[in-house]
């Protein structure tokens, strides 16, 4: 059987990396996680996340409703009919479609986002990113502690694997929070675009308000979930720290 040789310098660097990960991960579990959960708990008690009347987070949409246009002749000319026919042939329109309405220019030059929600999102996003990064570090640490595969005496290994699975789940959930924020912006943008085309339809403006209220509630839930995940990970790892660091006991050696 041929021996598998590893360059000594490379092995030294890898061992140094393992020691660095171990020190950083142990500090995260023992010190960073409890401090962060207390910090997020204080964040949840701030006035910005405890608005009693959701009307306070509404953002005014300043789009002037144009005066109605009275048409004396409802018949389309040949140019309009030909243009509609070309749209139907290109699959851009069906037989009942109408010409696209004009988009009215905003007096301010740009339709602004909801400033209060943007400020809140800018505070929440770094917390989401931090959780993902710290979970990745702790996950790497636990994975490096998993011993080689053997028959029997694998109870501690199963605890390590469950810990890795929990850390991976938390990472995925945190990433989904970022997706949720992106969906909020794109959904709101589409609705505002509708308002610029159909400023006389009140329901579009009401829907933007509903979307803003929903996002505010979602952001508060996200902060609560971030805090809870720090609590859960800290508690789970501390309760099983002996099995995580030493998955296989040496009691069997004393029997012989």
From TrEMBL:
InterPro entries: PA28_C (IPR003186), PA28_C_sf (IPR036997), PA28_N_sf (IPR036996), Proteasome_activ_PA28 (IPR009077), Proteasome_activ_PA28_N (IPR003185), Proteasome_activ_sf (IPR036252)
GO CC annotations, alphabetized: cytoplasm; nucleoplasm; proteasome activator complex
Domain Proteasome activator PA28 C-terminal: 111-253
GO molecular function: endopeptidase activator activity
Domain Proteasome activator PA28 N-terminal: 9-68
Gene3D superfamilies: Proteasome activator pa28, C-terminal domain (1.20.120.180), Proteasome activator pa28, N-terminal domain (1.20.5.120)
Keyword Signal in annotation: no
UniProt GO BP: regulation of G1/S transition of mitotic cell cycle; regulation of proteasomal protein catabolic process
Keyword vocabulary terms for this entry: Acetylation, Proteasome
Presence of the UniProt keyword rRNA-binding in the record: no
Similarity section: Belongs to the PA28 family.
Protein's UniProt name: Proteasome activator complex subunit 3
